[in-house]
Amino acid sequence: MESSLSASFSKVYETPFATTYLDPNSKIMCHEYKAASGQMTEEEYKHELTMLQQHINQYGVKGLFSDTRLFFFIITPDLQQWTNENLLSKIPTVERIAVMVSPDLVTQLSVEQTIDEKQTEGILPIKFFIKVEKALSWLGYSLPPE
Question: Residue 110 — φ and ψ, nearest 5°?
C-alpha cells in the first residue's frame, strides 16, 4: 500500500493473491493484488472476489479502489460473466469503482472487458487510472498532507 495511505487505511484481510484495506471514515476500500495473482486457479479467483464482496457489504463500502497493477490472472469470458453476476451486481453500497491499471496489456484488457460490460449496463460508474492520487480523489478521498 502506498505509504501516504497507510495511516488512515487498516488491513481488513490478506490472501496469497491480494490484500484488502479499509478507511472506515470515508468507507473506501482498497483491494491490492499481488504478483502471485498470476498463479490463481479459477476457483481461487472466485473465492477472492466472493471474499471481497462479503467485506464490501459488511463494511458498507461506498468507493472501491482496485489496484490491478500486479494482477496477472487472465479473466476468461466465462469468468467475466461470473464476475458481473457475483460481484459487481451484489455490492449495492458501492457508488464508484476506481481501477489502477496493470502494466500487462493482456491482463489489463481482460479486467477492462469485465468491467466495461457492467458499466454499459449503467450499474456503476467505473474509471481507470494510472495515478493513485487521481483515483482516490475521484472516489472522494483526500490524501493526508505529507
Answer: -70, -35
How far apart (Å, rounded) are the C-alpha atoms in residues 63 and 141?
9
Grid cell of 59 as nine digits = 463494511
Q: Quick one: average pLDDT of 79-98? A: 88
Cα 89 to Cα 68, 81, 146: the distances in Å are 20, 11, 37
State the pairing for strand pair 63-67/28-33.
Answer: parallel
Alpha helices in the chain (DSSP H): 42-59, 77-86, 105-120, 132-138
Q: What percent of the chain has pLDDT over 90?
A: 48
Domain ranges of the chain: 10-138
Examine the pLDDT at 106 and tell me if it is beyond 50.
Answer: no
Alpha-carbon distance values, 30 to 40, 70, 99 (Å): 20, 14, 10
Query: What phi and psi, each to the nearest 5 degrees, are found at residue 88?
Result: -60, -30
- DSSP single-letter state for residue 64: E
With vertex at residue 10, the alpha carbon angle to CA 16 and CA 14, rounded to the nearest 5 degrees, is 10
Topology of 10-138 in CATH? Transcription Regulator spoIIAA (3.30.750)
